[in-house]
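Supplementary Methods S3. Input chains for the assembly prediction are listed below.
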Amino acid sequence: MIRFIAKRLGSGLVVLFVVSALTFFLLYISSGSIARNILGDQATAEQVAMKEHELGLDQPLPVRYFAWVGDALTGNLGASWFTSEPVANSLATRIPVTMTMVFAAMILIAICAALIGVAAAVKRGWVDRAVQVGAILGDSIPGFVIGVILVTILAIQLGIFPATSTISPDSGAEAWVYSMTLPVIALLLNGVTGGAQQIRSAVIKQLERDYVRTLRSRGIGEGEILFKHVLRSAAPAGLTVLSLQLIGMLGGVVIIEQIFALPGMGPLAVAATGQSDLPVVMGVVMYTVVVVIVVNLLVDILNGWLNPKVRVS
Amino acid sequence: MSDSVETAAAAAAPVPPAPTGQSGTVVRSTVLRRLFRNPLGLIAMAILTTITLLAALAPVIAPFQENFANIAKTLAAPDAVNILGTDSAGRDVWSRLLYGGQLTLLSAVLCAAVAIAIGLPSGLIAGYYAGKFEAVSNWMVSILMSLPGLIVLLTIRAAFGPSVWISMIAFGILISPSYFRLTRSAVQSVRNELYVDAARVSGLSDRSIIARHIFSVVRAPIIIQTAAIAGVAIAIQSGLEFLGLGDPAKATWGVMLSEGFKNVYLTPTLLFWPAFAMALTIGALVLLGNAIRDALEDADKIKHRRKKMHDAEHAASASAAKAARKTLAAVEAGTEHHLVKVTNLGVGYPQADGSIKKVVDDVSFHVDRGEILGIVGESGSGKSQTAFSILGLLPDTARIVGGAIQFDGNYTVAPGDEKVNQDRLSKLRGKRISYIPQEPMSNLDPAFTIGYQLVTPMVRVLGISKAEATKRAMKLLSDVGIVNPERTFKAYPHEVSGGMAQRVLIAGAISCEPDLIIADEPTTALDVTVQADVLELIRDLQRSLGVGVILVTHNFGVVADLCDRVAVMQNGRLVEDGPVRDILRNPKQKYTQTLLASMLEGKTPMTMLVSSEKEPVA
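Predicted structure tokens for the full assembly:
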């Protein structure tokens, strides 16, 4: 098991390295006149040249990349070109907001999708049809449009929830819950409808397996067969679905935070993108890839725990 | 939006069954006809056609240019000139919606085209030739799939500036794995089909095999996938523009949504129209994809519709049949008492055309304690279905279409019942009736140890403690000839051999001291030498426990070796039954004679094997 984890961790690090290199070269090759953009049209040629030297832009790209890697390994991701705030600092203040929302949404998705999906697989009938229709609706309406609808109706028209949030890391738990309820709902609806449908088909597939019939023949009750055996065997498929949803959600949350004006990664990413503040963009990409790698590793470990065959090999 | 991106790619990945015919046009025309018959598919196509036409004709229909601004008339309510009102810059919402549709749809087409251009050829090559190319592609796919779409698009935007086209090309590359995986698995599934081999042998080049045989298999799944991807592309492009990172000079639904959201306090309707257009388009794409899938997956829907019709018919004939059966039951009651008594049993499955296909028809037999009854027949003769109806473990779709089953004098299928009485059977299963399956490996849950799977039924059914059940499980394992019970007890199913797994299943079947064991081809999946051991084990156990056994098999050798009486089945009917000796010596029916001839003549009888040396068991 330890070798298994080490192997997955190793391949995760390779992915991190590859993605960081690709992103770095992509960002810096295509943006020609970075210093000019920062200083504006009024700046003289000397000022631009000085700025370029200051930012290290006069050195060859590979040298800059390895310098960046060296700094990154010590936790220094550079500083914003516009605000001069260290990128690592901006990430550290914003990641808690975003991750709180993402994990709250994921946990709720896992619970709701599993319950609804299992109910649809076992009961069939109207629950099943509702899940099918829900999946089509969920696929049809993009998550951020749901967010816009929610904020327009529940916050702006009815005033039940705040349309924009004012939370900071030291606001109380109550303020966080109040501010985050709508964004989390906007984040999770699509995940629940899509996840329920896929968990449904995974459960149906397991219910048709031979060992389920044998368990029945041994006098084991339907409830125990379902919750102890079938769900456990269907779980790897469910986990894969959930991990893919989480990857997608890292992008989706950017828009949701923008809609609800939450001080998470979203506004930082959007502002940096708009201004081509490349060190910040680099930092955002790195944070995303690290989260993805960690999540995939956790899913692999969970699958290993669920499936003794993987665990042994 | 992007949370659905990767899931959509994953969700669409399972390949629908490939159309069977080789003549592509025939397959396609029937699929198209089914598609047009499906109301949802028809509606989806109508919506998409309308939206495409409106967008294409925007320069003709739209009353204003997309960016024509009437500064004097901002955020106006709908009137005769601006039928949907104006936005904050005084631009006509209706015109912008039309032009926006043009750009939005074109960008989605571009994205799908890029994704197909990359994913299809690489998937074909990886699936057909496999090797290094496949390994490298798989690795790249796993990287691409672990990147959130929107974050990548933000990076591209930071690098290349706001261009719909560049971002859609990038997204096309990012989502190309969904076509790659689809194509690769479709190709892999047909690569080794006989007709592809035949084409290869007959000298067709790889290229024409791919073009002629393999491309026809992936065509339909790709259309389905494209519908999904176009929807995802529209969503993510709009999301990017909603963030204000789109090209402000161009009208798209996303830009309009962003503009509407800025004025949400003043004119919420500005939000409504682009959101509506988007949801309508994506929804139609999703429905179209589903409709094509349904059309391909044959007449599942038709079955549903016809079933209602059939139910009405069936009810009428059923009441007549019920009356007839009642009289039968009256005659049967109070006659001789058997452990199991099956009377005129019929089992059937409702078909697509509304009829019921009978797989068991008018079958009667009985079994007593201490007796082994063999049910013999070819595959498809209904012998397993008969066995499962005694256990009450028929598939959900099965119907009892006639007859009755009594266990120890009580009806588990009463005359006139459509279904097995699960209330009664759930109390009998495991405790008094048990089951030995055919395929040992697939009948153990791979996620639990063998010990757990032996102990739990005893705890549940007999109500004994876990410790006691463990002690009994050890004894059972050694009773069924397992040399090292402790090790097997702790092992997972994949850690033991097929023969051992079958012994474990037999131990499970006798663990709660049943009165009747139903063994469904218990040796078919095993090696010949292990078969003999397992048969001997069943016979020994039957003698020492005095249980009744129903042994389902296609092998007369097994019957001769083990059974007291035998029932021969063919096409769902019982053709002959009686004591084994009589049937073997003097088969009356032609079918039994043929079966016997094919089993015994010129072969070494199975009985010889029983005396062969035992396989050492761990």
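The beta strands of chain B are 340-350, 356-367, 372-376, 399-407, 410-413, 433-436, 516-520, 548-553, 565-570, 573-579. The domain at 323-597 of chain B is CATH 3.40.50.300 (Rossmann fold).
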